[in-house]
Structure formats: structure tokens, C-alpha cells
Amino acid sequence: MAEVIHKRKLRIRHRGRMEQIRIYLGKMLRMFVYENDWKVLPMAALIAALVSMVIRTKFFMNMEGDLLGAFSITCVAIWNGCFNSIQVICRERAIIKREHRSGMHISSYILSHMIYQALLCLAQSALTVVVCGYSGVQFPEKGFITKWMMVDVAITIFLISYASDMLSLWISAVAHSTTTAMTIMPFVLIFQLVFSGGIFQLAPWAEPISGLTISSYGLKCIATQADYNHAPMETAWNVLLKLKDKEIGGTVKVGQILDFLSGQNNSVVADLRAKEINATTTVGELWKTICSSATYQELRKQNLDLSAFSTRKIDAGREEGSSQNENVLLKALIDVYESVIGTDGEPIKLGEIIDWLQVDKIVESMKDQQIGRQTTVGELIDLLASNADVKAYRDKGITVKTTYGRLMELVGEDKVKDIVRVQTAAASRVPAYDRTLDNVLNYWFTMILHILVYAFMAMISLKFIDKDRR
């Protein structure tokens, strides 16, 4: 009987690596069901729901929202992955040591953990994406790598979470107790989040350190998938809106204003100049405007010296061989001249001639007739700038007092908004967030490399478990 039991122990002791992987997977699944390891799934869903409440109106909407969403989801994935495995080895360290001395292969043990943790991270990633979607995060329907953006993001979350999981597995293999592992964990989380390089501006010396973190590649990958560089930026526009009622003022020269309005390279001015204006008016309205002007009243008072229109000079011109039509016109001019001012050649005011011609009656008879055409703001500005009287006032200072809001209304608030958002976004472009296939695949492969390296380091650490005297 003793011999049979001894042979049975030998069979258990020398089982192959694949069989040991199956045994340990069965053990982990039982722990998942009976030791409440399943609680990590509802916790992942709860964390995703809380984060979604913050990012749902911003993620995939603008630059700030994409960066905030990428950072938040990266934090969720790292948190889930780290706490999946931070205690799994150190809490059963004595059992592992005993089983290793009985013939357990460390590689089988680590591989079984890798398979189990991969399934756990996969379930958490799917839950995170689904909860975010139901919580109001507006995922674009079309993906960049796959057909659906939710699948693209879920793959990235899985890789971030799985890499963090393997990092924690290594820490758990190094730590000799759960207390030590849980003490180390906050420092690891802070290191990952601070050196992610997204929200926190890093000094040049810290850039190489950022390249060692999982969070850096995870954040870059999600920001790339969200097409960060082609999203509008809202910060500058929101600041401008807060200043909408703030008064601004100062003294500028007329010439400076005209030069600014005549500029063609400024897109805002160019759009303003292109606006069409209906310049159509009526003869009556135009005549009323002319009569009410001070310039017209001054012109009426001007004396006109018409002494050149003498009968003698006209007759002399007639003798030089003018045509019959020209002679008729000259005779009409003589008649007008003599009927208005006589033949004494005394000066006459321009207003008297206008009154004699009965211009008011002529205008009254055609006051409703429309004149004018469609013009643009630019044409009116150029006409004003070319006026001699205006040129004389180029060096005159004008005190201007207005608000940002009125200036925006002048150009068009929607136009200002588009310009501010697009130009600030172009200035904030980050090449690492360019939505290219090379970028996405590079970040994915880098996180896969992290997974393999941390799993290998955990395996190496456990190889020396027999030397542990505790």
C-alpha cells in the first residue's frame, strides 16, 4: 500500500509543464469563484462609470477632451491591471516554495498566471468600453485599425491593463509579503501617472524616464486613435468668451486703422472685406443726403467767375469753323448765361445756378427711382482710403473704446470661434499623436514588449525562491 502511494506521488511530482499549466489554471478559476476574485469585474465597471461622468461630454470632441479622456482611461486600465495581481504571488509564497521543491516548474506557474490574468484584463477592458459607451462617451463609429472605434480602444485598454498586470506580478514575485507589495504599489502608480507625459509637462531630463512607463505609450495610443491633432482646441475660445464683456480701448491713428482694414493677408480682414453690401438707394434719399451735408452748403456759397462766356469769345470760336451742332450748343450756353447773370459778367454763386435750374423739382419727379449696385466692404474701405480728405487725417489720433464682444460681432462670432479653435489647435499639434498606422502599431508593440519583459522578470525572480529563508 505504501508503495502505491509513493508511485502516485512520483507521478504528480513529475507532471509536464502543460499539465501543470492546466492544473494551476483550474486552481485560479476556483479562486475566482469561491474566494471572491470576481469582485474585480464590478469594481472595474464602477470605476469606468465614474470616469465616464467626467469625460463623456469632452472625449472625442476637442483636443482637451481627447487628452483628458486618454489620460483618464489610461489611469483606469493601469489601476485595474495593477490590483489584479499585486498580491497573487506574495500571498502564497510559502506554498509556491514548497511546490517548487516538489517539482513545480516556475515557467508553468507564470504562464498559467499570464493566461488567467489575460482573460481577466480582457473582461475588464470590454466592461470599461461598454460602460463608457452606455454612460455617454461618444465613440466614433468607424475605427482606425478595425471596423469599430470601440474595438480599437478596447485593444489599447487591454494592452495597458495587461502590461500593468504583469508589472504587478513581478512586484508580487519580488515582495515577500502582501504588506510590502501594497506599500510599493502607490509609488508605482504615481510614477506611471506623473511620467505619462500627457497632462504633466515634463522637463527634458525626464523624457527618457517617460519612455520606460506603460502610461506614456497607452496615453499616446488613445490620443492617436482619438485623432487629437485634428480636433479643435476650446481653451483659448473659452477664455475669450469670459472676456466678452470686458472693455478695451486706446488711441490709434486713422492711418493705422485704414492700413489694417486694407490688409489682404489677414484672414479675418479678408473675410470682412469680401462681405457684400446692398448699396442700392433712391434719387430722393441720395439728394436729401447731399443737401444735408456741410460740404454741399459750402459749395452753394462759392462764387463762379463766368466772364469767359462772353458773346465776343463765342463768336470768335464760331468763326474758326465749328460744326452746326456745336454752334447750336454754344448758342444755348449763351442763352443760359445771359438769362441767369446778364451780360455784365458779374460773379454768381453756385447755389443760384442750382436754384435756377430747378434741381429740386427734377429730383422730386424722380425721387423714387433706384440707383446704386451691390458692392463689398473692401471696395468701400479702398474708396475711403483713397479720399484726399481722409488721407489728410492719417496722422490724427482716435480714441477707441469698445468690448471684445462688439469686436467679435463685427467680424462674426462663429467666424472668430472657428479661427481661434483651428489656429490654436494647429499650434498645439503633437507629432506623437498623429493618427498614423505606424504610431498605433508602434505603441501596441511597445506595450506587448512591456508585458513579455515583466513576465520574464517575474519568472526570473521566482527562480531564486528556494534561496528565500523566510
What order do the strands of the largest sheet run in, or round the barrel if closed? 1-8
The number of helices is 24
Number of strands: 8
Percent of residues in helical segments? 55-70%
Strand share of the residues?
Answer: 5-15%
Global morphology: rod-shaped
Distance N to C terminus: 36 Å
**Count of spatially separate domains:** 2
Q: Output the structural class.
A: mainly alpha
User: Main sheet?
Assistant: 2 strands, antiparallel
State the assembly state of the protein chains: single chain
Question: What is the average of the pLDDT values?
Answer: 77
Low-confidence stretches: 4-12, 309-314
Q: Any idea what the radius of gyration is?
A: 43 Å
Question: How would you characterize this protein structure?
Answer:
The protein has helices spanning 2-13, 17-34, 40-55, 63-85, 93-101, 106-134, 149-174, 178-194, 207-210, 214-225, 235-242, 254-261, 267-274, 283-291, 294-300, 311-319, 324-341, 350-356, 359-365, 377-386, 388-392, 404-411, 413-427, 437-463, and strands spanning 247-253, 276-278, 281-282, 303-304, 348-349, 370-371, 374-376, 397-403. It has 470 residues and is mainly alpha-helical. The protein folds into 2 domains: 2-231 and 431-467, no CATH class; 235-426, no CATH class. Helix 2 packs across helix 6, helix 3 (40-55) packs antiparallel against helix 4 (63-85) and helix 7 packs antiparallel against helix 10. The two termini are 36 Å apart. 23% of the residues are buried. Mean pLDDT is 77; it is low at 4-12 and 309-314.
